[in-house]
């Protein structure tokens, strides 16, 4: 896979109560990823950037909510999330990554 493409696949980690619980219980990390990203690309990007072993990747699409902005109708953006299951003994420390 193209190195430049892999550097752009992961957009941001998802930090919420649910993602923190998943990290503690199931050794999973949640990321926001590009709309066209595949499971293989996400796995390769996480292994390249964080130097960890990835067991599996689950990907889901979330539609943006319809919202009103004053008198105008609008939508929030669609989000593609990836839940990355790390191998036993592996962990990602976001404080050390630049």
- Summed up, the domain count is 1
CATH class designation: Alpha Beta
Unreliable runs: none
How many DSSP helices?
3
Number of DSSP-assigned strands: 6
Strand order within the widest beta sheet = 1-2-6-3
Rg is 15 Å
Q: What is the overall pLDDT average?
A: 93
- Name given to the CATH homologous superfamily: RRM (RNA recognition motif) domain
Tell me the CATH topology: Alpha-Beta Plaits
- Beginning-to-end CA distance, first to last residue: 22 Å
Please give the largest β-sheet. Answer: 4 strands, antiparallel
Q: What portion of residues is helical? A: 25-40%
Strand content: 35-45%
Could you explain how this protein is built, in words?
There is one protein chain. This protein is of the alpha+beta class. The chain has one domain: RRM (RNA recognition motif) domain (Alpha-Beta Plaits). 30% of the residues lie in helices and 36% in strands. A hairpin with a 2-residue loop joins strand 4 (66-69) and strand 5 (72-75). The longest helix has 12 residues, at 39-50. It starts with a helix and ends in a 12-residue tail after the last strand. The mean pLDDT is 93.
């Amino acid at each position: 896979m193209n190195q430049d493409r892999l550097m752009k696949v992961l957009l941001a980690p998802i930090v919420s109560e649910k993602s923190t619980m998943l990290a503690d219980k199931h050794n999973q990390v949640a990321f926001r990823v590009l709309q066209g990203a595949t499971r293989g690309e996400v796995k390769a990007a996480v292994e390249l950037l964080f130097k960890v072993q990835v067991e599996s990747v689950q990907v889901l699409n979330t539609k943006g909510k319809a919202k009103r902005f004053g008198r105008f109708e609008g939508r929030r953006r669609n989000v593609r999330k990836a839940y990355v299951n790390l191998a036993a003994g592996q962990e990602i420390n976001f404080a050390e990554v630049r």
